[in-house]
Amino acid sequence: MLILAHPRTPSERSQAAQPEPAIPLPEPRAADQVRLVGGALSLLFLAVAGQLASLAWKAESMVSAAMVEPVATSFSRPDIVDRNGRLLATDVEVHSLYADPARVLDADEAIEKLAALLPGLDEADLRKSLSDGSKRFVWVRRGLTPKVAQTVHDLGLPGFGFRKELRRAYPLGALAGHVLGRVDADNKGIAGVEAYIDEHVGIDAVHATRPSDRAPVRLSIDMAVQAGLEAELADAMARYQTVSAGALLMDAKSGEIVAAASLPRVEPARAADVTDQAKRDRLQSGTYELGSIFKLMTIAMALDRKQATLGTMVDVRVPLNVGRFEIKDLHPAGRPLSVSEIFIHSSNVGAAMLALEAGTPAQKEFLARAGLVSEMTTEAGTVAVPRTPNHWDRAETITIAYGHGLAVAPLQFAAGAAALVNGGMSVVPTYLVRSAASGAPPVTRVISEATSRDIRTLMRANVTDASGTGRRADVEGYEVGGKTGTADIAGPRGYRQGGVISSFFAAFPMSSPRYVALVLLFEPKPSAETGGKVLAGLTAAPVAAGIMRRIGPLLDLPNKSGAQR
Amino acid sequence: MSFSRTDRSRLAEWWFTVDRQLIVLIFALMGAGLLLSLAASPAIAMKRSFATYHFVWRQFVFAGLGAAVMIAVSLLSPAQVRRLALVTLAASLAGLIAVLFAGTEINGARRWLPILGQTLQPSEFAKPGFIVMSAWLFAETKRRPDMPALAVACALMIAMAVLLILEPDFGQTLLVGFVWGALYVVSGQSRIGAIAIGAIGAAGAGSAYVMLPHVQARVDRHFAGSAGDHSQVDRALQAFMEGGFFGRGPGEGTVKIVLPDAHTDFIFAVLAEEYGVLACLALLALFAVIAGKAVLRARSEPDSANRLAILGLALVFALQALINMGVNVGLLPAKGMTLPFISAGGSSTLAVSLTLGMLIALTRKRTGLANVKKPRLVATRPSGMQKSSANSMGRGS
C-alpha cells in the first residue's frame, strides 16, 4: 500500500500568498454549514427509516394481505348456492405439485416415475422446463387428489414439492354450467357468475387454504327446476336431432331466472368445455333473428298505440312486395283477418301491415321501449348486443314485424316479452335472488295494463284455439299461453335453406302470469312425428309443454284444474 | 497494528491521525456487502447462466481492490487529494466523452466503457473528483475573489451535466447537480444565484419530465399509486412486507429470483426479505453514522476547501445510498442507483472506495509537517491567527 502513496508535498501552492480581497459575502461559519448539511441528511435518513418501519409494521399487522398476489397464494371464493341454499359451487383443498429445477437431481428418472402416476403428463414439456436451471419454480400438475399426492410424495423425488391450493368444485357437474361460468388455475373467476363474484362480491387472497368466510352467493336458479329443464331439453335435442337447444324460465315480474340452460351443456370445471364454440351459451352470448315470436311485439305496439283493437280487420290478401321479394303467408287465409286471427294464424302479411301503419319511427321507438335494441348485462356476463339493421326503413319495418332483420339474444327477448304479459312493466333479468337488501331495479312502463291484458288473451287463445299454432303447448292446470316462432337462419349469403330456429315463448298461469318461459330448438330435423315439418308448433311447443309438465309441480303455483302437483 | 508515537513514517502518522472508528465502520459496510452478495447474486448468476458464485467472486475481488485503493488514497495529504481529484476528474471527463463514441449500449444508455475485458462506468469515477474540485473552486471564490472560480465551477457543472445527459443518465445528473448545489449554498454564495440555480435545476428536471417519455412514465407510475405496470418496485415493496421485522431467514427470499436487478439496484429489498427490516435499519444506520461522522468532523476543519470537500463527499455517499433505499421502499420513482459497497458492480465499488479514501484522507487530524506551513499562510493576514497556532503538534492532537 505504501508503494501507492504519493511523496509528501512541502506546501500547497494554491494557498500561498493570498491578497486581501474585498469579499462581497462573508464565508459562513463551519458550524452553520455542518448544521445545514447534517440536518438535511438526518431528515432524509429519518424518512427512509420511517418508511421501512411502516412497511414492516403493515406486514406485521396484516400477514395475509399483500399488495400484489404473493407467490404461494390461492384465492378463496364464496360458495354459490341455489335459491333454496343447495350447493352449486365451493372451494376444496387440493395439492399442487411443483418442481425446483435447480434442485432436481435426475430429471429423467423423475419424469419417468411421474408419468406413470400422472396420466397425460407432457413429458417433453416437463423435461424442457426441468432442464432450464434459471427457473426456480415450475408447476408440474395442479390440483392432485390427496391420494395421488401422497403417492407422488412417497416417491421421494428431490426438488419436487407440494403447495396446497384451493380449487373450485362443482358438485353437480354441468348443471347450470353456462350460468356458473368458470375460474382459472388460480381460482379467479373468468366467466359467468364466477367472474361477477370477483368483480362485485369479492374474493380473498389467502396464504393458507382457508375456505372463504364470506356469505354464499345465492342464485335465483332452482336446482331442481334447472335439472328438470335440462333433462327435457336433452330429450328434445335427441328427438329432433337439433344442433343445440336452449330454454329459460323467468319470474315474469321480478326477472329472477329460475332455470336457464343451453345445450350442449358445459362443465365449469373443464376448461375445454367452456371454450368450445359448439357449446356456447345460446341464451345470452349469441343474437338470433327469432321469427314469429316477434309478432308479439308488433301486435302489442299496434294495440298500445290504439291504431287497432283485437277485432280490427286487416286485409291480408294482397301480397306485400319488398324489393324483388314478395311477403306471403304460409297458409294464406284468402279473407281479411282480425288482429286476433293475425296472431293466432301467425300471419306475416298482417303483422307487416300493422307495422307499416305504425311506421318506422314508431316501431323503433317501441322496440327501444321494450329494451330490445339496447345493451344488457346480467350476472352471467354481458348479453350479446342486439344487431339492428344499418338501414332501417320500410323493408326493414316489414321484416322486423315478423322477426327478421333484428337479431337479439333470446334472454333479452324473454325479458322484453315478459313485460308484455306482466301488466306492462319492464323486467330486468337477474341470476341472483332479489332480496329486500338488494332491492328491485327501477322499472318503466312498456305498455298499458289494458294492452297487456289483450296480449294475455291472445296468447291464451293461441293455445286453447283448435287451430292455434301453440295448441300443443297446453298443459292442463297451468293455464298456458304462448306464441310460436319458426325463423330461417341467416347465413353469410341470405337465408339458409332448411335450417330453422324453432321457438316458443310461453307464460303461465295466463290470467296473472307468474312465469315466462322461452324454448329454442336450433335446426331441428323433420321427422315422421312432426309430419316432415320443422314448424315450431310441432317442435318447440310440445317441448315447452313437456318442460312445464315436469317442472310445474316444483313451482309454487295455484293449480286451477286440480291436476296432480 | 502497533506504532510508536515517535515513528514518523507515513503509515505511522496515518495510524495516529486517521479516524479509526470511521475505518472500522466502512469495513463493516464492505463486510455487509460481501455477505449480501452471497444472498442475492447466486440467483442472478444462475439466471444469466454464469457460474453460481460468479458475482460473489467479483464482489470479493473488487472489495479487496477497493480496500487497497481506499487505504492508499487515505494516506494522501489534502493537497495530494486535490491533485488526485483533478487527475481522476480529467480522466473521467475524457472517459465520459469516450463513452459517447465507444461506449457499450445497455438499455438505450451508453454508460459503460470496455477496458481490458472489463467495463468501467466513468460517471461513477467522475463524482469524487468533481466534488473535491468544486469544493475547492467554491472555497476559492471567498479566498481569491479576483479569480473566476465561480465561473469555472459553473462551467464544470455544465460540462458534467451535458456529458451525463448525453449518455443519458438522469439519476447521476440529479445526484451530482444536487451535491454541487448544496456546496454552492453552504459555501455562502449569493442568494440570488442560489435561487437562479434552483430554478435552472427545476427547469431541467421539468423538461426531462416533459420531453422524455420514459422519465415521465416512471414518475407518473410512482405517483399514480398502484395503477399501471411498475412491477419491479411493487415486488420490492412486497419483499419488505414479506420480510417483516425479522425476515424470512437467509436463503428463504423469493424476490431475488424475480427481480432482474436483485443484486444491484434492489439488493436492499433482498436484505429486507431475508434478514428483515431491522437489518435494513441497521444498514441504514451504518450509512448514517459514516456520513454523520464525516459531516461532524467537518466542523473542526479550518480549511474551507477541505471542509466543503468533506461535506460534498459525505453528501454524495449518503445521497446515493438514500436514493437507492428510497426507490426500494417506494418513496422515490424507479431509478437505477447502486447502494455503495452493497450492490454488485466493480465500477461502483472502486469509485466508492475512491470517494471514501478521499473522505478519510481529508478527515485525518492534520499533524506534523502538514501543519508547519499553516502559520506561514495566515501570517500574511492582517486579521491575525484565526487559523491555527504555530505549534506543529498543537491543533487537533
How would you portray this structure in words?
- The complex is a heterodimer of chains A (565) and B (397).
- With 565 residues, chain A is of the alpha+beta class.
- Chain A has helices at residues 30-61, 107-117, 123-130, 146-155, 177-180, 192-201, 223-240, 271-275, 295-304, 339-344, 348-358, 360-369, 394-401, 410-421, 449-464, 540-551, and strands spanning 74-76, 80-81, 87-99, 138-144, 160-169, 182-183, 189-191, 204-206, 217-218, 244-251, 257-263, 313-314, 320-322, 325-327, 337-338, 377-378, 381-382, 481-490, 495-508, 515-522.
- Mean pLDDT of chain A is 83; it is low at 1-24 and 63-70.
- The radius of gyration of chain A is 35 Å and the shape is elongated.
- With 397 residues, chain B is mainly alpha-helical.
- Chain B has one domain.
- Chain B is built from 16 helices and three strands.
- Chain B has a three-stranded antiparallel beta sheet with strand order 1-2-3, covered by helices on one side.
- The longest helix of chain B has 28 residues, at 20-47.
- In chain B, 51% of the residues are buried.
- Classes of the chains: A alpha+beta (565), B mainly alpha (397).
- At the A-B interface, helix 1 of A face helix 2, helix 3, helix 4, helix 5 and helix 7 of B.
Which descriptors would you attach to this protein?
heterodimer; A: 565 residues; alpha+beta; Penicillin-binding protein 2a (Domain 2); Beta-lactamase; 2 domains; five-stranded antiparallel β-sheet; 20 strands; disordered N terminus; B: 397 residues; mainly alpha; 16 helices; globular; disordered C terminus
Summarize this, please?
Chain A is α+β, with helices and mostly antiparallel strands and 565 residues long.
- Strand residue percentage of chain A: 15-25%
Number of domains of chain B: 1
Structural classification of chain A:
alpha+beta
> What is the string of helix and strand elements of chain B?
HHHHEEEHHHHHHHHHHHH
Q: What would you call the shape of chain B?
A: globular
Please bin the fraction of helical residues of chain A.
Answer: 25-40%
Distance between the termini of chain A: 104 Å
Counting H and I runs of at least 4 residues, what is the number of helices of chain A?
A: 16
**Mean of residue pLDDT of chain B?**
83
CATH homology-level superfamily of the largest domain in chain A = DD-peptidase/beta-lactamase superfamily
